[in-house]
Amino acid sequence: MTFNPLQERGIPLDRQLRNWRELNVTPIDPDRADPYTRCRIITMNGIEIEAIMFSHHFARRCPDLEVRQRLAEVRYIEAQQQKAVNWLLPGLASVLETTLAYEQVAVDLTAWVARMEPDPYLKQAYQFGVLEDFDHLYRYANLYEMIEHRKAEKIVDRLTEVMPGRPTTMHHRHPADNVREHYNRETTQAISKLHALTIMSAEQQTMNFYMNVGPMYMEPIARQLYQEIGLIEEEHVTHYESLLDPGESWWEQWLNHEYNECYLYHSFMETESDPRIRAIWELHLNMELEHLRIAADLFRQHDGRDPEQLVARELPKPVTFEPNKEYLRELIATQIDYTTLGTGYVQEAHERFQRWQEQLMGGEEPPSERIIDENRAKSGDDYRLETEGTHPLYSLRTH
Ligand SMILES: [Fe+2]
Ligand SMILES: [Fe+2]
Ligand SMILES: [Fe+2]
Ligand SMILES: [Fe+2]
Asked: What is the pTM of this model?
């Protein structure tokens, strides 16, 4: 069944405001919820935060009072959507448990996007990044075992494996080497624009989350690990945002943002296992259809082109949370030693990389290495969840 969001009618904007009772959503049960339901919540929170911040930046650059008012009206609804979505997370979960879920999102969403991405250069960017968040999951899982005495399996539930990826210490690159070439807005496929926007938004929220929650811990190793991985998420935002064509007009960017919100809510409505949460995805889809209509009208007026020429005529295949274990094992076996040089990828550590590493490490082990040593000393071994057999690389197996 085809679904063209530009042809569908949503809820009129003046009927989208929710009162306190409607905003007061009941959170998911941390013990019984499908881990991928939690992943969808975390993803949509990142998407709504990007919708809000994009709209603020647009408004700051827009001299037209009427457009600024229109942006404010739509943005207020995005802000309510963000509250409704993020407040589905239960207060019972610890910050570290939510962190493990954030990295599970980064792993399974990015791996899925890498599998589906048609453009080889963009695909490589996702394959490169996913091996790093995969390793973050392993580092945080060891912190979790060490300070909360629990196993990450409680959060990721055997859907995602936990073991070393590209070692976190190797993620600290010279910032200039984090900037990629961008796609061409006129020739790239519509799906590629949606993928880039989705992963950029998810990584941006991860970066924001770590920079805010990191100092909430008392244990020095926890505080330090959040600093280290928080800096890598800054690199990831640079990496992914640079894929988007900076030549897109503000109107075009707004159109792409609203279209992507429609795509993701529709995807999650189609794939959600919890009927109560599914109803929220459906409601938000119906709100987004109206946002898209408004953005498309303003696009026609101010940009002059036809929005139908820019976006997909029908929604692509739904974004799906599912295990990507074999795909990730294959990437580990072939791309673990990659780093970047300029806008490309190389397998050897180059001079600029080395210099950056030496300055940042200051002759010491980084927190991401110390956490493994400390947990081995305390728990007897490092924490792993290898459901498909031993680690694909002999050198990273436990002996
Ligand atoms: Fe939204
Ligand atoms: Fe990460
Ligand atoms: Fe990341
Ligand atoms: Fe929206």
From this structure: 0.98
Which numbered ligand comes closest to the C-alpha of 202? 3
Q: Nearest bound ligand to CA 199?
A: 3
Angle, CA of 168, 197 and 297, to the nearest 5°: 165
Closest ligand to the CA of 291: 4
Q: Which ligand is nearest to the CA of 136?
A: 2
CB 205 within 8 A of CB 41: no
Q: What's the residue count for the chain? A: 399
Alpha helices in 61-119 (DSSP H): 65-86, 95-116
Cα 190 to ligand 2 centre (Å): 26
pLDDT tens, 19-38? 999 999 999 999 999 999 99
The CA distance from 191 to 213, in Å, is 33
CA distances from 21 to 18, 24, 25, 50, 334 (A): 8, 5, 8, 25, 52
d(CA 312, ligand 1 centre) in Å = 19
The ligand placed nearest to the CA atom of residue 129 is 3
Instruction: Express each pLDDT in 237-284 by its tens digit.
Output: 999 999 999 999 999 999 999 999 999 999 999 999 999 999 999 999
Alpha carbon of 292 to ligand 4 centroid (Å): 7
List pLDDT tens digits, range 97-114.
Answer: 999 999 999 999 999 999
Q: Which positions of the chain have pLDDT values less than 70?
A: 1, 399
Q: Report residues near ion ligand 3: CB below 5 Å.
A: 106, 133, 203, 233, 236
For tokens 């990831």, what's the residue?
236
> Could you report the per-residue pLDDT of 169-188, keeping only the tens digit for each?
999 999 999 999 999 999 99
Counting ligands in written order, which one lies closest to the CA of residue 200?
A: 3
339 closest CA partner among 352, 351, 348, 330: 348
Which residues are found with C-beta within 5 Å of the ion, ligand 1? 48, 51, 78, 81, 261
Closest ligand to C-alpha of residue 257 is 4
Query: How far is residue 353 CA from its own chain's centroid?
Result: 25
Measuring CA to CA, how many Å separate 300 from each of 246, 255, 258, 293?
20, 10, 15, 11
- Per-residue pLDDT reduced to its tens digit, 117-129: 999 999 999 999 9
